[in-house]
Specification:
The protein has 5 helices and 3 strands; from the N terminus they run αβααβααβ. It has 141 residues and is mostly helical. The protein has a single domain, classed as NAD(P)-binding Rossmann-like Domain (Rossmann fold), CATH 3.40.50. Strands 1-2-3 form a 3-stranded parallel beta sheet, with helices on both faces. The longest helix has 32 residues. The protein starts with a helix and ends in a 10-residue tail after the last strand.
Length: 141
């Protein structure tokens, strides 16, 4: 965040995209999944929700942390009916977005590697994963 009033509008837009985007995407499927007793909702959040990152004035990490909490709550709510909520927190992936970063990025993956790992996580029905796993072992501040 900065002292400029526009910063709060940007913060709100990032929250709307990264949190309400998941809520609005998942909502139409919840009733049908509960009724059928199977299926999986997969939320790809970000390592930014698991560990704060020096980007976007904190809005990016705050929004991803909120999305992460929403997915954890939804997983508990859906538990026991056969449907699952899977959360994946990928680290840095080579994209046009990461090409603009002005800080060193650890454990960078290609988009293909990330996609393959996410597909495996979904296939194995792992409910929570941080990829690459080396991120999980880093201490939080």
């Amino acid at each position: 965040m900065t002292q400029f009033s526009e910063a709060s509008k940007v913060f709100e837009a990032i929250l709307a995209t990264n949190v309400l985007g998941i809520v609005n995407l998942f909502q139409p499927y919840l009733t049908a999944m509960r009724a059928s007793g199977h299926g999986a909702l997969v939320g790809v959040v970000s390592i930014g929700g698991y560990r704060g990152l020096p980007t976007g004035g904190g809005a990016y990490s705050a929004s991803k942390a909120a999305a992460l909490s929403y997915l954890e709550s939804l997983r508990v709510k859906m538990h026991g009916n056969g449907a699952s909520v899977i959360t994946v927190c990928p680290g840095f992936i080579v994209t046009s977005m990461t090409a603009k970063k002005c800080y060193r990025m650890a454990f960078v993956m290609t988009a293909g590697d990330a996609a393959a790992k996410i597909a495996w996580i979904v296939e194995e029905k792992k409910l929570f994963s941080v990829i690459p796993g080396r991120w999980e072992s880093l201490e939080r501040y």
